[in-house]
């Protein structure tokens, strides 16, 4: 391995091959559930350096784990415990290469932080709509590798839908230059979509051309109290009817999830949550004016109140109030972490089936674990829930995980499968779910995935043991 380290230093420079000292920032995942040991952390600055690193590692028979901001939740971007893998950090590749106003595109390198991309687009007079709680530290390469979703999928789609082109280093160290930014290119297989969501197992994304949108004339946020999940689904239908494509966000939050925010972030004022099982956060991005947006919102909420699917609601009066409401929603994962270790799920079910799914699964978990607490929240507008499970009050959280994690996952995933859903909506598969996928995905689909992996990475150099096992 000494020869490989020397070669890697020759490629990226001595200062950017880290093999000693505290490497926790790269070797431990955000949840602190996975901790590995890297042979070295390698930090290239150019696509050519990435290609040279891949070739060197392939020649040495050393596998590579690509990493962006290391904000993933499924253990997909940290090394294993062998001490033999190279951790390839792309954070130095953070340049905005080009903005094309006429084509409504922006081309950025994979290590560009999402918030920097958002800010650059806004400064140029455009909107880049991908929005996540981790946007201050996650990178666009990581977003693409997991096909991240976030809070505006309802209007703009997942990261896949926002991407028009990629630059990728293959497992053989070749560079695919596919950054054209074309909206129509029907010359064979869609290689772009193949790499998006593959979690670095088929190739290493080094740059991307992303869609831009005109800035909305006005963006308004409302918070509504709803008597049940059925009523939340009914409110969604009304919102889609009244707001059409102006509806950019529709988030549901369970009462217990909001109570954790109130408990652990006492400075936050959370409206309307104490007397209802769920609250909904809606966003209306209007292309006409604030008056038009507010009129639409008021008509929607009046109708919802008349039909009984909303018991009370507030509309943010200004941008600061809107940010406060969104901050409450984004603080739920942090509040849950403060409450103690928990079992996280990122599931998708058809919107129409979510109330029945939750009712049945809540009952099964309560029967299995008396006193269990459900932290249920997420993107109801696109059928994606973060259906998380917290230990009973006063219990040993670590022991709870040891005793129940496997059983809880089985219950949750079996129910997802029963209702025709997916066990991973926006977080990816990583190492945490890789052995679950064959249980809940068609054997034909799994074998096709294996065939793609064998074709593009026959030596298993790129992020082995993630997404699919050979």
From TrEMBL:
Residues 34-215 form the FAD-binding PCMH-type domain. It comes from Ramlibacter albus. Keywords: FAD, Flavoprotein. Its cofactor is FAD. GO terms for molecular function: catalytic activity; FAD binding. This is FAD-binding oxidoreductase. The keyword Flavoprotein applies. It holds the Pfam family FAD_binding_4. Belongs to the FAD-binding oxidoreductase/transferase type 4 family. One of its GO terms (biological process) is respiratory electron transport chain.
